[in-house]
Design brief:
The complex is a heterotrimer.
Chain A (H helix, E strand, L loop, with lengths): L1 H60 L2 H6 L5 H5 L3 H31 L6 E4 L8 E4 L4 H38 L6 H9 L3 H27 L20 H7 L5 H34 L6 H13 L2 H11 L5 H8 L11 H30 L2 H9 L4 H29 L2 H8 L17 H12 L2 H30 L6
Antiparallel strand pairs in A: 1-2
Helix pairs in contact in A: 1-18, 4-5, 7-18, 9-13, 9-15, 10-13, 11-16, 13-15, 13-16, 15-18, 17-18
Chain B lengths: L1 H21 L12 E8 L4 H14 L4 E8 L2 H10 L7 E5 L3 H6 L11 H7 L2 H6 L1 E2 L2 E2 L2 E7 L1 E5 L11 H6 L6 E5 L4 H10 L3 E2 L10 E2 L3 H14 L4 E3 L2 H9 L3 E6 L4 H8 L3 E4 L3 E4 L2 E4 L2 E10 L6 H11 L2 H11 L2 E2 L2 H7 L5 H9 L3 E3 L10 H13 L7 H14 L1
Parallel strand pairs in B: 1-2, 1-3, 8-11, 8-12, 16-18
Antiparallel strand pairs in B: 3-16, 4-5, 6-16, 6-17, 7-12, 7-13, 9-10, 14-15
Chain C lengths: L8 H38 E2 L18 E2 L2 H8 L3 H32 L5 H11 L8 H10 L8 H14 L5 H10 L2 H9 L4 H12 L1 H17 L2 H7 L8 H10 L4 H25 L1 H14 L1
Antiparallel strand pairs in C: 1-2
The chains are: A mainly alpha, B alpha/beta, C mainly alpha.
Chain lengths: 495, 408, 301
């Protein structure tokens, strides 16, 4: 008797210690992260300074070819017989000059002003019937877009320019040593060999830059404007600096919406992630336990929900759980009073968490099953030889193995749940709207709020601000957890 | 690193060159006279009807060729869409009257040319004429008038029982609920406040400076709503569930607008019946419920390439013949004076009821300030119904809403 | 915890039997909970109001329809735009499958095999980009496409092209799982090949790819199924041009934005079944690769 109670208290003490330790580590990494910032900044600054020094030195020490290439790109290549490369660089320089002359300077200026002439109308007497004709004015959105593009072009050109110098220097150095500079054909060949990675990377990366980075820069900039439903792009919007952030974080109507939504987002992410995870692991263990027949069929039942597009299952759930839907009807027949689960904040929140379990458990179950099937059996063999009981084997081998392998998965799931749009939006649309304002409801996540601000009311600047804040939160969480888990990852011990 | 970066950037330079080269939305030349590419927006259920009307329009103008693009965009959002994306929005679109203010202020809608003034001023009912006007200028072509009324299951309720809300609630119908409506939507809950005597933007709803909401009438209305919350036979039912509830006999009557006609007819079948809004007992007296009313209009996009043709088309879509088609096809109450007079005895139930209710309505104001009314009032009155708002807080809440309406 | 092995055999067997039956019961109940909604969906797609073959069963008091018909499927393929949408989505997903797999695998291979100066930077960039909410860039992408003439008042095929570009454009960011897989392939194979004189690209093509079948299948499967379920991006870019819709946008608009959801209800169920069946079959056939992909990447992740 006393033995087991001792054991129990020891178990709880252990758990308590572990949790305390975890929090302590969390705090430590948090502080450490911020303390490291100044040293990182110093390193970065020094790198830039070095770059400038090198720039000047190359000019001073280089030969005629190098010096020319500072002004006429490609001359370094010409001087050493690389015709094609030289022509390439020259062409880029000409294109850039043309672009800046015709479009670039105007776009850059437009970036600052975001348009000055706005739509106006006049009576067209030629039409003779007193009809007003619209003369479209400056579209601020396009101004922003072209301005950003111009900035990128400028930066890209600078990069190519520096590259040009570097290759000229390399050629010069080669000629000093006596090595023949590579021909164009050799360069191309190396692209498939030593520099293969460039070829592959460039194509893939270009896609990312155009479709992810460029729009993102764009939207981040919008967070600093006043582009909302009262200032559509045809009527022009302008820069307002940090006003949106102040409005969101200060103490007023917006912030009294922002912080509750933030709080619920975090609560939701924690509940959704951990409940899904542990219940999924539990389910996988159940299916995998010895002596259960038809493992594949059991798994199949649960995996079917993964194959159905998520929005179908969610809309299905919504209509089944509605106030006059089949489930409620069934309950009413059994004697329960008819209630609208989506009406009150607390019941709506319970519903979304439960439905999310229905959607998410199959995933974690599948992963855990895969891992369980792959645990090397000799671990168990050696443990059994040592006389370990079933439960001990589970605790010391299976559980740590699972936790270790799926640790990173857990972190990505947490981040993913912060941004889990589908479940909330399709089930409740953000939830009972009553306590919060500005388009947010009681089950709104930051992202669903962002979406309704974008789609329904057109308050793009607010949506962007929220997006940026979400990003900041996610990045802090993941930076901290990744650093911690990468340190524990080095412990490759299971025994 | 630099090499990768540079090569990537070269690709991007090429890409962005294309971007700059093509420029903004390509400026299309207006078609030669006689050929028109027109985009028309209408409600989903109207699509077939509108396509027929467009065909008739083509027949009426045999010298021109038309290329129609008909898309379904809800009338409550059409205005916002035209404002935010004028170049890809429709040339002619159908919208609800309360969006007129926003459309005018954002230069999104083209004014009515003088040749069509008389159609609006003289041939439409006065409320439609008011709805088509903003800042004393006509901007759109009205074609239907709507307000709220009562749908009920005539197997469960008799025409007498639905005359007063009190008798309705106390009637013995055997259904779970006797009557339901969407108590989270200010369009419906404001009924109780208006019935109690509250006014919005003055007696005729046209004075943007006259906002007096936090008065005794509103409080009386709130009290009535709160009392309704305790009645077991009265329930708040969301609009998407109302048809289901009627069909299954969970509820015997619903207060809603004419856009639900098709759904409720299918749901109730032979048991379908409509009546004007019942009376409610305020201060011991039976007072007729007063609801919002609205007018739907056709507007012309100010950025259209064919301003004359579109004005002609919009006027056509809102003319006598087409209003008649709407009356018979979709049970829409016409705004044309002659048709309106005939419709009262036309046998189209929904329209007759709308006309009977017409004197107890307030036109939805078109001021942009109304955007500060719908959501705050909706959540406030929803809270009053669910008793999440204490009675002592009502005055304060009303004053906040009032301040929002004035300060905007 | 003390586990007494000295219990009698009979008692042990009985305990085992009880726990086994308990597990079976739990599993059965859970499976029913999971599958029931799907069965309901399938039945609704065949459901019919008695004596009214084309009337929606939306809001029927009965949980399961009493009568069945195939009318909805017929109507789906003859009277609605669903076949066009199906074709659109098929084209988009096939194109995305090819493009996304190429991008993701290239990126993963490079990150796994090569060591170069900016590797860490690119890794961090990828991580950071993944933390922005995906559709924050929706508006910007729409304007970019409008600027180059692939969105707005343009032909359907241009809009489909735009969608393909959007879906596969940022595929390279999802390299993490694939990279984990490539890490498990022994580097000695590469070295042996290079000693024999193969260039890097030959190593990639002739050695790496054949060995990576599981991860290729996993990546292709994931990128194929993505367009079938995304309605957010697509509906924002396509707006009202219903000829260019994907299945996801069309179905979503039917049930969530229609004036009368009832009229589309059974059609929605039928359409959903048409979408779910091929994807489910794919998943079942390739289940092994799917699990290998997730766990393979996660082990080293």
């Amino acid at each position: 008797m006393t033995g087991s109670s001792n054991k129990a208290s020891r178990f709880f003490a252990n758990v308590g210690n572990k949790i305390a330790g975890w929090f302590r580590n969390f705090g430590r990494s948090f502080v450490g992260f911020f303390r490291k910032i100044p040293t990182n900044l110093k390193k970065f600054g020094r790198k830039i300074a070095d770059g400038f020094v090198r720039f000047g030195r190359n000019f001073a020490e280089g030969d005629a070819g190098v010096r020319c290439s500072y002004f006429i790109m490609g001359s370094g290549a010409f001087a050493h017989g690389q015709i094609v490369k030289g022509l390439g660089y020259l062409a880029i320089e000409l294109l850039f000059i043309l672009y800046m002359a015709f479009n670039g300077v105007g776009s850059l200026a437009g970036l600052v002003t975001l348009g000055t002439n706005f739509t106006y109308t006049y009576y067209d007497v030629d039409l003779g019937t007193g009809i007003e004709v619209n003369v479209p004015g400056d579209n601020s959105m396009l101004f922003l877009l072209y301005g950003v593009v111009a900035v990128i072009v400028v930066f890209a050109f600078i990069a190519v320019y520096l590259l040009n110098i570097r290759s000229a220097v390399a050629n010069y150095k080669d000629s000093v040593i006596g090595v023949k500079p590579s021909t164009f054909r050799q360069d191309m060949q190396s692209l498939f060999d030593k520099k293969f990675y460039i070829l592959l990377l460039v194509v893939a990366f270009a896609g990312v830059v155009i479709f992810t980075i460029l729009p993102l820069i764009f939207m981040i900039l919008i967070a600093f404007t006043n582009y909302d439903s009262a200032h559509p792009e045809t009527s022009g919007f302008t820069w307002v600096g940090f006003e949106n952030f102040i409005k969101l974080l200060g103490s007023n109507d917006l912030s009294s919406t922002f912080f509750p939504v933030l709080g619920w987002t975090i609560v939701w992410a924690i509940c959704a992630t951990f409940l899904n995870y542990f219940l999924g692991v539990g389910l996988a263990l159940l299916i995998n336990s010895k002596g259960i027949k038809g493992k594949k069929i059991w798994r199949l039942c649960f995996v079917l929900t993964i194959a159905i597009p998520q929005f179908v299952s969610l809309l299905l759930m919504r209509s089944m759980l509605s106030e006059f839907g089949p489930i409620m009807n069934l309950l009413v027949q059994l004697g329960f009073p008819r209630t609208n689960w989506f009406e009150t904040a607390s019941s709506a929140r319970l519903i979304v968490i439960s439905v999310n379990l229905w959607i998410g458990i199959p995933y974690s179950m599948l992963i855990t099953s895969g891992i369980l099937m792959n645990i090397p059996q000799d671990l168990y063999e050696s443990a059994r030889i040592d006389g370990a009981g079933k439960f001990k084997m589970f605790r010391k081998i299976t559980l740590p193995y699972i936790l270790f392998v799926t640790g990173p998965y857990l972190i990505t799931q947490f981040i993913g749940n912060i941004n889990n749009f589908n479940v909330i939006y399709l089930l409740t649309g953000g939830g009972p709207f009553g306590e919060l304002s500005q388009g947010a409801g009681s089950t709104s996540l930051l992202v669903t709020w962002l979406y309704s601000l974008t789609n329904d009311t057109g308050n793009y600047n607010l949506a962007s601000t929220i997006g940026i804040l979400t990003f900041i939160i996610c990045s802090i969480v993941s930076l901290i957890t990744y650093r911690r888990s990468s340190s524990t990852k080095n412990e490759e011990d299971f025994q | 690193m630099k090499k990768i970066f540079a090569v990537t950037m070269m690709l991007i330079i090429a890409f962005t060159m294309c971007l700059s080269a093509t420029g903004c939305t390509p400026a299309e030349e207006g078609g030669e006279s006689g050929e028109y590419n027109l985009k028309v927006w209408c409600a989903e259920l109207d699509q077939t009807m509108v396509e027929e009307m467009l065909y008739n329009y083509e027949l009426a103008n045999p010298d021109n060729t038309y290329n129609w693009t008909v898309q379904t965009v809800g009338e409550d959002v059409a205005g916002t869409r035209v404002i935010s994306e004028p170049t890809t929005a429709a040339d002619v679109f159908s919208f609800a009257s309360d969006q007129l203010g926003a459309l005018v202020n954002n230069n999104a809608i083209m004014a009515v040319p003088t040749q069509y003034y008389s159609t609006i001023a003289d041939e439409q009912i006065s409320i439609a004429e008011v709805a088509a006007k903003y800042n004393n200028q006509y901007y759109a072509y009205p074609y239907t008038y709507e307000n709220c009324f009562l749908y009920y299951n005539k197997d469960l309720l008799s025409a007498d029982q639905v005359k007063s809300l009190e008798t309705l609630i106390s009637a013995n119908t055997g259904a779970e609920y006797n009557i339901g409506m969407d108590m989270d939507d200010a369009y419906y809950t404001s009924i109780f406040l208006f019935t109690a005597g509250m006014e919005l933007f003055g007696a005729d709803g046209q004075d943007v400076t006259d906002v007096d909401i936090a008065n005794e009438y509103a409080l009386k209305g709130c009290q009535y709503i709160a009392d309704l919350g305790s009645k077991a036979k009265f329930n708040s039912i969301a609009e998407e569930e109302q048809a289901t509830a009627l069909k299954n006999g969970n509820v015997a009557a619903i207060i809603s607008g004419p856009h639900m006609v098709e759904q409720f007819k299918t749901a109730l079948g032979s048991k379908y019946a409509v009546a004007k809004l019942p009376t409610i007992k305020l201060d011991g007296k039976d007072t007729q419920m007063v609801s919002f009313s609205g007018v739907k209009l056709y507007g012309v996009n100010r950025n259209t390439k064919y301003p004359e043709e579109c004005a002609k088309l919009a006027a056509f879509l809102a003319n006598y013949d087409n209003q008649y088609i709407r009356l018979t096809d979709r049970e829409f109450c016409p705004t044309n004076l002659e048709l309106y007079a005939e419709a009262e005895n036309s046998g189209v139930q929904a329209v007759e009821v709308v006309i009977t209710q017409a004197e107890y309505t307030r036109l939805k104001p078109a001021f942009t300030q109304m955007s500060s009314y719908w959501t705050p009032m909706g959540t406030f009155l929803g809270g009053v119904f669910k008793k999440t708002q204490a009675a002592s807080a009502w005055q304060g809440q009303l004053e906040t809403i009032e301040a929002g309406l004035l300060g905007n | 915890m003390d586990y007494d092995f000295k219990k009698t055999n009979g008692g042990m067997k009985r305990r085992k039997a009880i726990s086994k039956s308990a597990i079976y019961t739990i599993l059965t109940i859970l499976s029913i909970c999971w599958i029931l909604p799907l069965i309901w969906l399938i039945l609704q797609s065949f459901g019919m109001e008695p004596d009214a073959p084309y009337q929606s069963t939306y809001g029927s008091p009965d949980i399961l329809p009493s009568h069945y018909t195939v009318n909805w499927y017929v109507k789906l393929f003859t009277e609605t735009e669903f076949p066009t949408w199906y074709l659109n989505t098929l084209i988009i997903s096939l194109a995305c499958m090819v493009l996304s797999t190429f991008f993701t695998l290239s990126m993963a291979y490079v990150m796994s095999r090569f060591r170069f100066k900016s590797r860490k930077t690119i890794q961090n960039i990828g991580l950071i980009l993944g933390m922005f909410p995906g559709f924050m860039s929706m508006v910007a992408i729409y304007y970019i496409f409008k600027g180059i003439g692939l969105a707005g008042n343009v032909e359907n095929w241009k809009q489909i092209l735009a969608l393909i570009m959007v879906y596969s454009g940022s595929a390279a960011l999802g390299y993490y799982v694939s990279k984990g897989f490539f890490d498990t392939v022994s580097k000695s194979l590469d070295e042996a090949a290079r000693i024999d004189g193969a260039t890097n690209s030959q190593v990639f093509r002739k050695i790496m790819l054949p060995l990576s079948k599981p991860i290729i299948v996993y990546t292709a499967l994931m990128s194929f199924t993505a367009p079938w379920g995304d309605f957010i991006f697509a509906s924002f870019i396509l707006k009202e041009n219903s000829g260019a819709y994907t299945v996801a946008v069309g179905l979503y608009r039917w049930i969530a934005m229609a004036e009368i959801p009832a009229q589309w209800y059974n059609l929605f169920a039928a359409g959903a079944v048409c979408v779910a069946v091929p994807i489910t079959i794919l998943f079942l056939l390739l289940q092994r690769y799917f699990v290998e992909g997730i766990t393979g990447g996660a082990v080293k992740g």
